[in-house]
Amino acid sequence: MEKGLAKLICRIAVWAIIATLFFSLVSCGENKKSQNTDQAKILYTSDAPPSYAAVISEILPSYSLQQAGKGNSIFSYINKNYAVEAFDVQALKAVETGVASHWYPQYLATVVIAIDRGLTDVEISGWLDLLTAREDVAVTDEQLHLQLIMSAISYGLEGVDFSLDSAVDLLRGLRQQEHLLLNTFTAPLIICFDYQAAALIQSGHELEILLPQEGTLTFEKGILSNEELSFRGDEEAALLSAGFVLRNGDFDSKYYPKANYASALRLDDYSHLSQVSQDVVKVFRRSVLRTRLFSSADNREHQLLPLLYIIFVVVWLASIISRAMRRRMKRILLLIGIVLLGWTIVRLVKYQIPTSVLNRYLWYGYYIFQMALPILLLWLVWRSDKMDDQPASNKALTALTLWNTVLVAFVQTNDLHNWVFRFDLSSPTYTADYSYGPVFYIITLTWIAELIAAIAMLLFKSSKLPRKRAFIFPLAFCLIMLVYSVGYTSRVPIFWESDYTTVVGILSLIFLEISMQSGLVQVNNKYSDLFTHSPLNMQILNSERKLVLASAHAPKLDLKLQQAALAAYPEAVRADKDTLLFSKKIDGGYAQWQEDISSLNFLHQQIEESMKKLELAHAVLEEEEKIRLELDEESAKIQVMTELESEIAADLLRLSSMIESLPVSDQESRESGRIALLLCFVKRNSNLFFRKQETNFISAGELTAYVDELAEIAQYFGMKILVNSEIKETIPVLQARSLYEFAYSVVDWATQTENPHLLLQLLTEKDQTLLRFIASEDLRSYEPGRELQAEISSAAGSFACKDLDGAVGITLVFPRGGV
What is the model's pTM? Predict the structure, then answer.
């Protein structure tokens, strides 16, 4: 099923491309035929007045004058060996770089203010008077004319080292006054070239041509060609009678009765002008008209933005494919990336071929990608919670794909019926002046409905996820996309002026990424790789007890052992001497893992060895005691040793008894631990005895170390003791001995009562030193021995059993600093 749908999508894309090429080639063939019927020698112009045609017919009778197509550069005609009318700003650079061979300057073109006296009687003398005139002022937004006009205004207001700032301020002020008009010659005041004003006078307008007193710029205009031209007749007389200003400054006074060209400057070098005004379209749109604030504003940005977008899509595509786990999801994401890239590339190519049949069919080609995108989004959402072994698609998706294909076919054949776009192909501005047919609205409703269906499917699936609010951000971006699409279709300025392809593509990518990050579209996890490379000795079985996933460390189990482990659940079975095999039922199957118990076996062996070492240690202690008694000849030493012997005699006797009864004990491990504890206690109690002979105080850190030693020994036979000491100062030795003996007594008692967890705290409260025990089992049955009670009383201590927030604690309390 997956291969069938992929083949269907590929066929649709191939046939759509073939259809686009077919219609383009047919139309281009017709266009070529029409071009072959044109005259061999044509002079193209973008704005020459009607009188210029008469001049050309007189001085170049073999050439015919034709209007250049909107958006076509003059250099595209030069490359086809046509002659063109151009400004010196263009021509001098073209000849210098070898783009054209011959430049024939003919007349001057000066930026002026034309005052229509049939519409206004306002008196102005310069550029700044336009702001106070309170009359409508017209200016063209054609790039080259705007570049020269704004440079002339800035020169007049700033001087030779001008920028565009003064012109921007002037035109922005007119716009704020709502007196700025574009591309019209019917306003009371017109900023234009003098030859345009003269042409308007010839057509019956009552214009007064004013050269601003602040200054303006004059340019040369003439013919640029790759072929040498042979002019006939009196060229200057023909231009003069047609209302043009000659290069030497002569003009017909009936067109320029009050014109004074003294304030007009001809620049010797256009490098500064070219540098300052290269971004004139962008500056005019954003700073004057306050449009294109959030989209590309000129040709340079039109090309740069898609290139940045393409890089962004490629990086995102590489990232998401590397994150995707399932093969089919990866393919869908790849197709989405190809659609977004293809859409942008077609758009990029379209802008390189202005006003041509191929341009129109590239425009139609947008809809191949626009109608493929919602289908792929639907497919992605539908497949998001399905495994690779489930069907790749369903009948509804296939039907929607076929329906979208029919709509795309209507777009590609629009020239035959105009049911999608309605325009007049004979108009050079048809790409901007068009309306929508009924099929366009069906297309718009279709892809919006498909997008809403994808959102609804996501909302339904999000109800099954733990993160119930995961749909909020994806839904928000979908709503933004819908609002944008409706605004663009309705030609709301902020939407209409943006790049539809790029905006929809970016919103789609953000929608996809947020859906994946929130878990709505589950593609950003590599569970299989993660499980395979994990250090767990685990494997997953399905409900039929067949292996689905296994880690790299999981051994291959014998089938009989595997079944035995499943049957023994929740108990474990022994795989070998050092390994246990566990099983647990999970959703959809079972998890099996192994645990290594070799460390436990090793610990048991260590305990046995420790018992032997304790016996040897006991013998050594006896021998040391014997030697010490023999060597201590002084009476004081004998007395001290006698006291020590009396102190530890009972403990040593108990130690001997415990060691003798160890072989017949049924709790051999525990008794071994108790022996180790007692040995440690005897040793440290002896240390405290000798410390008492030396000083009356001991550091709290040393006492804590002694208690930590007991806790460490207790770990060998399964007890877990956490020691926490907050005491920083010194403690009387008598109190320290009582605290240490009390700690040992509680730990030894806990080992016999199977009380595996103890929390021991050494702390101070008010004027008291406390030793507190909190255990995992009840401590109420603990009672200290009589000797210990006597020792506690002699040190002014007290023993108590208290309830501590639901647990029972034993507390030994001494006054701080001793009695």
Answer: 0.54
